[in-house]
Amino acid sequence: MKSNITNYIRAGYPALYLVSPEEQRVEAEMHQIAQNLNYHLHFWSVVDGLVDSKTGQSRQANDPLEALIAIQDLKEKSIILLRDFHLFLQDPNPILIRQLKDVLQTAKTKNKTPIILGCRLCLPPELERDITVIEFALPGKAELLAVLGGIIESAELKAVDGEQRDKILDAASGLTTIEAENAFALSVVESKSITPEVVAREKAQAVKKNGILEIIETKESLESIGGLDVLKEWLLKRRHAFSQRAIDYGLPTPKGLLIIGLPGTGKSLTAKATAKVFGVPLLKLDAGRIFAGLVGQSESNLRAVIQTAEAIAPCCLWIDEVEKGFAGSKSSGSTDGGTSSRVFGSFISWMQEKKAPVFVVATANDVSQLPPEMLRKGRFDELYFVDLPNQQERQAIWEIQIGKYGRDAKDFDTVQLAKATEGLTGSEIENAFVEALYLAFGAGEKEPTDLDIAGVLTEFVPLSKLMAEQIASLKSWAKGRARLATSIGIEKSGRKMVV
Prior knowledge:
By secondary structure, the chain is α/β, with parallel strands linked by helices. It has helices at residues 2-10, 23-37, 64-71, 94-109, 141-154, 162-172, 177-191, 196-208, 229-237, 244-249, 267-278, 297-312, 322-326, 332-335, 339-353, 372-375, 391-404, 414-420, 426-442, 450-458, 463-466, 468-478; strands spanning 16-19, 40-45, 49-52, 58-59, 78-83, 112-118, 132-135, 213-216, 256-261, 282-285, 315-319, 358-364, 382-386, 483-484. Helix 5 (141-154) packs across helix 6 (162-172), helix 7 (177-191) packs across helix 8 and helix 19 (426-442) packs across helix 20.
């Protein structure tokens, strides 16, 4: 990053726009760059005015227009870091825009480089061709290691060994230097040492702040899923895909997985289990929250998501009900000025070209709402269709759900339960057992029986009946277009309950 900025300045670019929430880290980098280039470094803010970083002398130019005029009076070979200047470009004054364009014209000939520093991109069309935008990457392991060393030294702790150090740095990946320093310090206060568990917990809180990304602590594994043997086998073959051994072997990093099927058939559960299989963190993306009202904010949100995911990598990025997040991309030009289309285009381009080990797991209920571009080979490694569970899968689901609620599956006739619940999804089977638990509890806290479950099932209307037409349409679409998540078997029909 430092070399890129240095090259832009040496090449005489009229202005740069650094997008970063790390003001202190950027300022430290600019100090080194100015020193290496033998340039004068100035900082500007609406509070302090224009300040010479070497002498500390300030010039009363608190107004942004005054600041631009003051830049013209500075010596040659100057770098001017404009803090929060992007806030004045949201609804810009025409005079400010004109003055900035005039400054940029003269700055290039005088070796003066104004640099706008903001946490998000806010650039009016009049300046898009004049200012070069640079995404200031989140700190890597080298920068985080320096922060970790500083905390260890200040707290007078013993140096951590290599394996523990790597775990701590992995837990801190995706944080800013300030956030990492705070997480390390909190760990020292809580446990008198720096532990990856505390750092990971704080990272989850930090990532969750913007409401777009969330780190999910998953306990689910492939054993939590009843059936889907083909999909499980596909995942197990790739469980070491992010290892150094796989990289040395020359394996390409897997891109992701798109799972289509009915609600309640285990798509979300599979997404959680995927992260467990790979042994990496699970990030959940709320695609709908990417879109914001301010001009440019949606694109900025997507860049922040990608930057965070790549900083935390290797990881799994889970997009639940992806069709709802990007459903409006087709008609975007007439509804939101093309914002949805641009965001969607940027996202699928990133999926196609990404080099960072970010495995995308997308789930969808309504395939008709998915843009065709997302279904094209190359976006995902594989497209799977999850159908209603067959009899063998339903039996496995019953055993899992009964055990989940602290009962022994041997006390129930799971074979007959599987036969009696033909057409039910895994989620509906769980709901049926929970309802039986309530019935048994209300009848004097006795244990539920097969008869209690049978009573629940007689009044249960499954989704396969409520949405029979939609399900038939989805199955018809999936035939020949998607791989089945379950091996093809013979379904023994007959919804009878023997007790």
